[in-house]
Amino acid sequence: MNTKRLFGYLLAIVSIIPFLSSCDDKKEIENVEISTGVYVLNAGKLNNNNSTITYYDFASGFATTDVFAQKNGRILGDTGEDIIQYGSKIYIAVYQSSLIEVVDPKTMTSIKSISMKDAQGNATKPRTLTCANGKVYIVLYSGSVAQMDTTTYAIDKTIAVGANPDKSVIANNKLYVANTGGMATVKDSTISVINLSTFTEEKKIKVNLNPSGDINADSQGDVYVQSNGNYGDIPGKFQRIEAGTDKVTDIAVGVKGFTVYNDKAYIYNFDYDASWQATNKKIIVYDLKNEKVDNESLVSSTIEKTPYSIDVNPVTGDIYLGVTDYSSLGKVYCFGNNGTEKFTFTAGLNPAKFLFMISK
Question: Where do runs of H (alpha helix) occur along the chain?
Answer without folding.
Answer: 3-11, 67-72
